[in-house]
Amino acid sequence: MSEVDGQAIEPQPPILSFEDAGRVHGTGPKAVRALGPVRIDVRAGEFVAVMGPSGSGKSTLLSLAGALDQPTDGTVRVQGWDLSTLSAGARAALRRRTIGFVFQDLNLLPGLTALENVALPLELDGCPLREAREEALGSLERVQMDRLAHRFPDDLSGGEQQRVAVARAFVGPRALMLADEPTGALDSVTGEMVMRLLRKQCDAGRTVVLVTHDASHASWADRVLFLKDGLVVDETRTPSASSTATPLPDA
Amino acid sequence: MSVRHSLLAILAERPAHGYGLKSRFERDTAGIWPLNVGQVYTTLARLERDGLVVPRDDGGGARQEWRITKPGRAALAAWYDAPVAGDPPERDELAIKILLAVATRSADAGRILQNQRTATMRRLQEYTRHRREADPERELPWILLLDAFTLKAEAEIKWLDRCEARLGRRSG
Ligand SMILES: Nc1ncnc2c1ncn2[C@@H]1O[C@H](COP(=O)(O)OP(=O)(O)OP(=O)(O)O)[C@@H](O)[C@H]1O
Ligand SMILES: [Mg+2]
Questions:
Q1: Which of A185, A207, B116, B144 has the smallest CB count inside 10 Å?
Q2: pLDDT confidence of A105, banded at 50, 70, 90?
């Protein structure tokens, strides 16, 4: 895994880390702790799923990871950068260049075609129009949506819209994808197709953090974190690929 | 699992000898439930006693081939026609463990739920990995079984979540 062009490289620092990071809303007796403090490291190329009951802090975790919100305690780092030390401009640039989001709803802009939606983050980042569109088309191709690139979101099915959203999250060189219930409204077959896409992105070296209520979707991840009352109460890893154990049904 | 009816199902297609039945059964069920060949021979002897199979005239010994009879086909059809009874469910160790932990307070039920969920999730990850690696053409029986195991594991996780929510509501 840690090989580039056949050349072994040094183990990298985590692409995302929570160093005793947490988020408290409000102050005094009315303060509500939404998250933490938690200690989480996500390595580049890893696919991490986050599960937990409603209100356990999953979306808060993603907002902190994506620099959409600031921790009230501890430190959140992306690619080694302490997010709280970055200027607002630098944080916005990091969000555009490094981080992609997929939200459950609020996904695509209805006035733009699929292609324009995917190209938008690049254009906002100052990329020339033609280049941005070319790049966007490539990204749509990876989710097998290039054929429908010129449709408006309203003329796409829910699953197709989700695939466009995934393409947008991974357009350009962005390395970290944060997805909050991206399969919420999808049937199981389309949901699995989105998981396959995320898995492929990770196998190609990108990193995914996925919030989901669906255990079978979480099972596509390398590691599953369970949150409860804002804390990580448990985690799993997949047995290594070399494991030959055959799963047996319960006796 | 009904070894009797499984053997009848295979023999309904064409006559076979004991070892052939074993390997055919294991291939068609993705090798998940190994049959020992001794079990195959004792089952064949009982099927013969009941008139559901007969030895083919030629051959003998280990190479003895068996053929399904008319009453054998009827017994097989009846098996296929009868839906599998799921009620009452088989004794379920996980359910019993959790119910007793809650009722007798002899253990921390929350901890048991959490441990089990992690273990079941790990199993689910393994099923998903196998399914990803399986060849959809050649390994269809295996994929169908993995689907069944996956959905059962998923249901178990949902049930554990629900237990946790109900217990939390009671104590909180
Ligand atoms: N702005 C806020 N002010 C006060 N409390 C908040 C605020 N935002 C979130 N919370 C609280 O923080 C906790 C965690 O919220 P969060 O949205 O992270 O949960 P979640 O795990 O994503 O839940 P769900 O599965 O329902 O989406 C909740 O109890 C929520 O009420
Ligand atoms: Mg949420």
A1: B144
A2: low
